[in-house]
Amino acid sequence: MPVLVLDELCIEQGERVFIEGPSGSGKSTLLSLLSGVVVPQQGTLHVLGQQLEQLNGIQRDHFRAHHVGYIFQLFNLIPYLSVMDNVMLPCRFSKIRHVRALQRSSTLEIEAQRLLGQLDIAGKLWHFPVTTLSVGQQQRVAAARALMGAPELLIADEPTSSLDGNRRKAFLRLLFDECEQMGSTVVFVSHDVSLEKQFDRTIHLAAINRASTQAVWERS
Amino acid sequence: MGAIITVPILRLAWKSLLNRWVTVGLTLFSIALSVMLLMGVERLRVEARESFANTLSGTDLIAGARTGGVQLLLYSVFRLGHATNNISWESYLDIAAQKSVAWTVPISLGDSHRGYRVLGTTAEYFKHYRYAVNEHLAFDQGQSFSDLYDAVLGAEVAKKLGYELGEAIIIAHGASDVSFARHDDKPFKVVGVLKRTGTPVDRTVHVSLEAIEAIHIDWQNGAPLPGLSTSAEQARSKDLTPKAITAVLMGLKSKILTFKMQRFINDYKEEPLTAILPGVALSELWSVIGIAENALLIISAFVVIVGLFGMLTVLLASLNERRREMAILRSVGARPGHIFGLIMGETAALTLGGISLGLGLLYGLLFIARPMIEAHYGIHVPIGGLTHYELLLLGIVMLAGFVVGALPAYRAYRLSLADGLSMRI
Q: Of B333, B335, B420, which has the smallest distance from its Cβ to A38's Cβ?
């Protein structure tokens, strides 16, 4: 029984897309598809010119390492690494992102510090254990990590749901500024519709997901 | 899975361990203790065997009345059990006069002093008895016996009973010290104390063969003859040539003659005798008591297994709370193989750390306990490098650690495949 059935969904490169839908509408599945964790049972999936369903698991892991930045809803950071080490983590698994980070700054540390500065994380926090940070600070560190090495695709899974209204706006503004500079595509999932006007386009997943419509029909 | 153990993964493993230092420290400590026990038992085992084999050296043959080889060794060298029969003095003289015989030390057993065996012998004993690698007996105080009623004590006898030179001691008849079977009419004087050897010599009271004869003048079949009483002074004037001895230690002029001489004694016409090669009998005896030693090693091997299972428990228990961590790693591009490598790296660090700490503890303990072990048991434990066998044992522990670690590593690998980036918390 598929949880996500889409006739077609196209997101342009550099676009900022807001994906909205109630729980069970297939948001997580869509993100798993886009990040190459799972492949579609039927049909094709092109991301950044790659046909993902034709890659094997390890190739898709490499694809994700090189091209995707991912922000979770909560608990984004490795608890035993410092703020700096967390931010530099993607470059440890991807040569490409390592090289791209070095194109922007002379060392990984300087690039990480630049991103943390952009996202308003004070310098005194850089070498703190991540567990001493507030939730808002943690989410901004997570954003810095996702942006490290300028991935072409940034996926955010309700990253602002634990922040209050003002902080949400500030967080988004910082995120967009940085993505614009890098030319990254942003796929942002949330059920908080108050955010949608800050995006180029909103996709109402429940409306286009035929699997959930079927389920709703069957239930009623 | 390719190169799963990469430098960043090892760095991650290291930091993750540091982050959980309390449980990690305890796990490390339990592995270290078990490794220390294993190595300590192994070292003591080897040294006990060495020390056992070193009880007697330089003696080519031991002869006694016809009996089993191990029995003869037990009573003549280890002072355990009793001889069932004796060698007549004439046979002894005949054997001692053989051309191939370089030296002989006759010994006569049967009496005791406060739980320690009394050995009747000649001054030759102190000259020819050797232990370990050709160590001669040496006097800590005093000298060998010169008077009929002189006694030389082993180191332990002197220390435990608090005897000093010049003190008088009473010898009891038989191995048990009971008041009605004491040779209390003929007290002995302590004239010498031997240095510690770590052999049964330390637990022996040495007197001359003539003295053994003297104290038994009025005795027959293990009891004093009623009505007879020869005083210590009167005994001096009597013929004190022994009628029989218990056994004889002998050295030959050439090792090549050993088997010939052994056959000569075993086929001795006048009375049934047995001759043994001490080295052969010692290893025969060790093969019997060595079972206990192996049991000890097996127990400590189990302790190591328990230690490793402790590590398994800790690693498995932590996996569930680390699923979030695994998902984060996957999101930044870690492959499931990396996750496997991370847990394996932690296991390797724990096992290696446990082994190193265990060895450190062992050497520390050896350094502290060495003088005590030597003083109490006469076992000299050298603080040397690791032997091949010990390295092999450590290699097995390391391998077992990897095998044990592969289990949680594989589980983490499966979980990270199943969870992907979404894990419910």
A: B420
